[in-house]
Amino acid sequence: MPKRFRMTRRFPVAMTEDGYRRLKSFARDAGLDEGEALSFVFENFSSVMNEEKLEHRLRLFNSELDARKK
């Protein structure tokens, strides 16, 4: 039986412009709205992410994070 799609949480999110553009592009290409696209990514996180690349990209993002906030 398929899961019922129900948005259970709403939360304020701060995103970079690049991140938001990518989210909108992904959602549009997949025929989803932004919330549905985020739900898809996180519900399927382990199967859509490359762990080696994720760790590397996360280190880079964290090293640039303070500069991005200024």
Task: Summarize the SSE layout with pairings.
Elements (H helix, E strand, L loop, with lengths): L16 H14 L3 H10 L1 H4 L2 H19 L1
Helix pairs in contact: 1-2
Assembly state of the chains shown: single chain
Helix count from the secondary structure assignment: 4
Cα radius of gyration in angstroms? 14 Å
Low-confidence stretches: none
* Number of E-state strands: 0
CA(first)-CA(last) distance = 48 Å
Tell me the domain tally.
Answer: 1
Q: Which geometry do the CA atoms define? A: globular
Helical content band: 55-70%
Mean pLDDT: 87
Proportion of strand residues: under 5%
Q: What's the helix-strand series?
A: HHHH
By secondary-structure content and strand pairing, the structural class works out as: mainly alpha
Query: Main β-sheet, in a few words?
Result: none
Organism: Aquimixticola soesokkakensis
Protein name: Ribbon-helix-helix protein CopG domain-containing protein
